[in-house]
Amino acid sequence: MFQIGPTLLQCGSTLAKANGAVSLGVTSLVVIAIIIIVGFGVFLTMMNAGTTTSTITTTSTTTTTTQQNQTQSSNGLELRLSVNATSITSGESVLITASEYNTLTTPNNVSVANLWGVNGLSLGSCSNEFVQPFGVAVFQGRYTTQNLSQATPLRIFPITACPMYVRLVTGYLFPPQSDVAAVLPGGSVTSGTPMAANLTVSHIYKGYTESQVLSPGVYTVVAGDEWGALTMLHFTVLAQTMTTTTSTGVGTLAATVSVGPTQPVCMANSTSGPAPSQYSSIQIIITSSSGQNTTLPTQWLSNGCEATGTAQASLGVGTYTLNLSSCTFMGCKTSLPKIFTITSNQITDVNVSIDTGIR
Fold first, then answer.
1. Residue 302: DSSP 8-state
2. Which of 317, 223, 307, 230 is nearest to 269 (CA)?
3. CATH architecture observed for domain 30-57+249-355
4. CA 162, CA 135: separation in Å to the nearest integer?
5. What's the sign of the alpha-carbon dihedral 8, 11, 15, 20?
6. Radius of gyration of the chain (CA)
7. Edge-first strand listing for the sheet containing 293-296
8. What is the pTM for the complete model shown?
9. pLDDT tens digit at each of 359 positions of the chain
10. Residue 315 CA: distances (Å) to CA of 43, 94, 335, 343, 345
11. Which residues pair with 199 in a beta bridge?
């Protein structure tokens, strides 16, 4: 799995932002009931929950065959795209990976071109935080290069406040046969930036707190770079198969994840505001003892020194683990995963503190 590099984008880039929500899907029979708290957009997700009431069981039908496609440019670069499933059930997620690879056996110094082949390509909520020369978009329907211009990209990233800055980028220096590059001017090949990104998609964002899962149908995933290269794949979202069952005990999870420091020198503000997109795009993932994964939409705030994410869920009695959809900080391996136990009719507080290593 690739790690997204420094979050800056070239000056003059015409990447359009696409916004959406990210979550992981269901891989086995699960019982789900969702209560939406409108004020914070916090979802209370019930897994294996209830006392003697009828609930909904969803059958997973994910086909996990990984698809891959690529296209080469005249400058010696190859734009690569992969999707980890050909079909998923509505409410589940797909993992999209895109990368730019130097096919030459010699170093490749490529100047910026700003020749994007399609609008709506991005790697996150704020396009100006990413320096990679490519982006991804998802479209509802089956499209090809012949009719792609007629399509409208979906908002697959959360809508968030973006910083008002851009970085001047004049080119990229790739080592031989590599998907790591020095971002010019000023970049170093020895400490290059990964020219790769992973995106997890399962929701479409309609507002700051309103989102919906991908509805049944065919979807087109497109990767494009600023030299005009385009490559695409398709996947299908299937409708959920629902039956009724009777569940047993219920408890409540109250999860808090603190990540910091978020900058080398900082002073905590007296009030909190929206967290930067590199934190706000992270979701809390709960895994049951049977291996069932459920993603909890997570509310992130920042006081200038620390980003804090919170989520609540009603869970069936049992033992679970808490993890994050993405965690590349120094303290991730020592703080995660977090094991906890849900007890009937009780609130279980789970607090996780992660050191970013920023000093």
1. E
2. 307
3. Sandwich (2.60)
4. 17
5. positive
6. 21
7. 293-296, 284-288, 318-324, 338-342
8. 0.53
9. 333 333 333 333 333 333 333 332 333 323 233 333 333 333 333 444 443 333 334 444 556 577 888 888 779 999 999 999 899 888 888 899 999 999 999 999 999 999 988 988 998 888 777 889 999 999 999 999 888 888 899 998 887 777 777 778 999 999 999 999 999 998 887 778 899 988 888 888 876 667 788 889 999 999 999 999 999 999 999 886 644 444 468 899 999 999 999 888 888 887 778 888 788 889 899 998 888 888 888 888 888 899 999 999 888 899 999 999 888 888 898 999 999 999 998 999 999 999 988 88
10. 12, 24, 22, 9, 10
11. 96
DSSP 193: E
Q: Are 88 and 238 in contact (CB under 8 A)?
A: yes
| Cα-to-chain-centroid distance, residue 306 | 20
Domain range list for the chain: 30-57+249-355, 61-238
Q: Which of 101, 116, 96, 114 is nearest to 166 (CA)?
A: 114
Residue of 325, 323, 334 whose CA lies nearest to 356: 334
